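Render this sequence as a predicted structure.
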Amino acid sequence: MTMQAATRAFDVSAARKDFPILDRKVHGKPLVYLDNAATSQKPRSVIDALTKFYTEYNANIHRGVHFLSQQASEAYDAVRGKVQRFIHAGTEREVVFTRGTTESVNLVASSFLKPRLSAGDVVLVSAMEHHSNIVPWQMACEACQASVQVIPMDDTGTLDLEAYRNLLTPAVKLVAVVHTSNSLGTVNPVTEMTALAHEQGIPVLVDGAQAVAHGPVDVQEMGCDFFAFSSHKMLGPTGTGVLWAREDLLESMPPYQGGGDMIASVSFEKTTYNEIPFRFEAGTQNVADVIAFGAAIDYWNGLDRAAAAAHEKNLLAHATSSLESMNGIRLIGRASAKAAVVSFVAGGINALDLGMYLDTQGIALRTGHHCTEPVMDFYGIPGTLRVSYLFYNTNEETDLMIRALDRGISLLSG
């Protein structure tokens, strides 16, 4: 990519026209949507792809010889190739469709990790993990008296890599780490962390749910063994996502669930399983949403991602400086490498109350622990207000949020 392309101004006005929901009003006010870490909004092309499937070729896949089934199967199967190219996987066989990041992690916990765990073994996670990258490992460990250990972080929300190195002992059977924290915005050095783990022969799973929407992903360059992400965080529908895994690891793993399409043959005496990745996709898949997910990938491929990333960096800087200028605001998470996520608390005001007030002003942001209760415990707080941006947001929206926030603090502080 040329320097000229990397520094081209991003046309946010044009981008916003692709997202119908951004034109609506909430409580009589223009919608200011700042909850993208929870789920992104959907461009018209994704919505149209979903509608087209149900109105023109709705059918089950891989089971029918009739025209609609063939058309649906071809559209569904084509998305696997789109995902492969989007994350730079080595082959389509490494792409497993799931219901999202959570199921992807559970699949690895059940099919890869659990058969390999013994008493005294360890799964290493970071201090900033989402619950979905903690609980499945705890469940697997509890079954065989293994344990989950934690890579510590400092007050800025930056992982302690020296402590991480010391934790990479022979007892560790897997490292599971988030690429980009949903509650702090920290972007972790997952390529370096993977290399350190591999020096000790330890496989690595990267939770990429937040990362895929903020920059290109190359799983081969990253070097990890598993990479999990969700469609709905990156402009696609809910209820579908991906587990990418190295081909040799998938070949070594037993099926996660049993049912149709994951089999080669079935008798009452014996069942033989389908080849990868199909052996991990039991039953009727979420056909319509996978196809619409493909439309989301098409949208990303048509976007100037370098310009979009520069625009998000500007949004982050503007929001950070604006919040820092307000009395009583404490920012939570100040890592030097950050995505466009800002978490904060406002004096002694309950985050939920403040979030509800902001909603009356048409401003949608997230309040609470963001499914990262250990992070909140680390900072000694029950939760935060979280502003999370995507390329279609503007500095003007931040200014509206700041003015409403100031009014809300005055109102709720009496």
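Summary. Residues 67-87 form the longest helix (21 residues). The chain has two domains: 3-30+304-412, 47-301.
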